[in-house]
Amino acid sequence: MELPVTGKPHKQLAEEMEALTSLDVDWRSGKIWSFVYFAGDDVAQVLKDAYTTFFYTNGLSPMAFRSLKKFESEVVAMTANLLGCSEAVGNMTSGGTESILMAVKAARDWARAERPQITAPEMILPVTAHPAHDKAGHYLGVKPVHIPVRDDLRADVDAAQAAMTDSTILVVGSAPCYPCGVIDPIPELAALAKDKGICCHVDACLGGFLLPFLRRLEYPVPPFDFSVPGVTSISADLHKFGFSVRGTSTILYRDRNLRRYQFFSQADWPGGLYGSPTMTGSRPGAAIAASWALLNYLGEEGYMRLARIIMDTAQALIDGINAIPGLQIRGKPDMSVLSFDSDDLNIYALAEAMEARGWNLELLQRPPSLHLVVTPAHKEAVEPFLADLGEAAEEVSSKKPAPTGTAAMYGVLSTLPDRTTVHSAILDFIEGLTRPDQS
């Protein structure tokens, strides 16, 4: 694959790229249950207009692009107010993973300064915590210590307390966790951290822009934000239930002194004085501008309207799935993220049967289950989805087909006792993603 000698005309490229969208899942009609958070054509147009206006701007230099300084500071301030502390400080990032990396870095560097006797820092994570925390630990030299969840699928606080050592610098809870949509007992986890004088991070990448509005709609949302004593940082993704463009998240800190440990500076570079608040240097200003525009476009009323649609849709799905023989929702989800499993059916074969009907569901493991992230795009998909799911469940129950493809791979790899082999298979898969498809 080489760079073409002669460039293609714009029209030809546009037609070629449009044709390639046929390879993708139909996200507009709710056929996919992850990755895309579509809130309507009006929202999409607001994002496109803002994005293209600020297409060439760079968040690395707020002095050159003062508009971006206004946008980012106001997005952070609005998010801080939503999450229970108007005095909280923070930054926008490229996504939940970078937000979590920043929280772990700030905790690590705080410990280096305040607890220099700690030479091998550790952080306590429920097994349901997002792997971005493990990635952060891998990159930053902070050992993840995994604790189990209780029967209700929330973090086991007693296990967290037992896992505490003199090297613990950070305790993590999710609001909610990705696998089953339940919120960990944040007040209890934060109290452990506060008693020990260490950091407590709440991963609200999923819930940060939905849970505050559910609370206002009088849904029973457990405490999770800066209103909880001991919570020191929160990550919340704008590109999830904030409905912004991909590549936008926030990381916030209760205390500005802790946030300073997130920063990087170089005072002696011949290229000039250099400072960066987050992991990346250059940052797409268009994403910052689009997020600001959307928050101002939707406002509280817009987010409340979308929250009602989302939760009505999620409840209809929960009731419908539980009514299908052999299927049950795992736990009691606190918002519109849920998973379901079966004691009787091969869940991966069921996923394959649904894929044959045009539905793309995420596969989970330990236990085998299927995952749904419910957005406004799924409002009209509930009835056809449940009809196909009931039909597929009956088919799998009667014919007992053996899974093939990805479903079969999950069935095998999720049960292998030698996890080294599984890690190797994941790396092989990732390596193959950047090989051009010669077909």
Report on the structure:
With 439 residues, the chain is an alpha/beta fold. It folds into two domains: 247 residues, 3-Layer(aba) Sandwich (Aspartate Aminotransferase, domain 2), CATH 3.40.640.10; 128 residues, Aspartate Aminotransferase, domain 1 (Alpha-Beta Complex). The strands form three sheets. The chain has a seven-stranded mixed beta sheet with strand order 1-7-6-5-4-2-3, sandwiched between helices. A four-stranded antiparallel beta sheet has the order 10-11-13-12. The protein has a two-stranded antiparallel sheet with strand order 8-9. Helix 2 packs antiparallel against helix 10 and helix 10 crosses helix 12. The mean pLDDT is 94.
Record the SSE blueprint.
Elements: H1 10-20, H2 41-53, H3 66-82, E1 89-93, H4 96-114, E2 122-126, H5 131-140, E3 143-147, H6 157-163, E4 168-174, H7 186-196, E5 199-203, H8 211-216, E6 233-237, E7 249-253, H9 256-260, E8 264-266, E9 274-276, H10 285-322, E10 328-329, E11 337-341, H11 347-356, E12 362-364, E13 369-373, H12 382-399, H13 405-413, H14 419-432
Helix pairs in contact: 2-10, 3-10, 4-5, 10-12, 11-12, 11-13
How can the largest sheet be summarized?
A: 7 strands, mixed
Put simply, the count of helices is: 14
Helical content, roughly?
Answer: 40-55%
Mean pLDDT score: 94
Strand order across the largest sheet: 1-7-6-5-4-2-3
- Cα distance, first to last residue? 12 Å
Q: In the CATH hierarchy, what is the superfamily of the largest domain? A: Type I PLP-dependent aspartate aminotransferase-like (Major domain)
CATH class of the largest domain: Alpha Beta
Q: The CATH topology of the largest domain, please?
A: Aspartate Aminotransferase, domain 2
Per CATH, which architecture of the largest domain? 3-Layer(aba) Sandwich
- What percent strand? 5-15%
* Secondary structure tally: strands: 13
When the domains are counted, the total is 2
Question: How much is the radius of gyration in Å?
Answer: 23 Å
Q: Label the overall shape.
A: globular
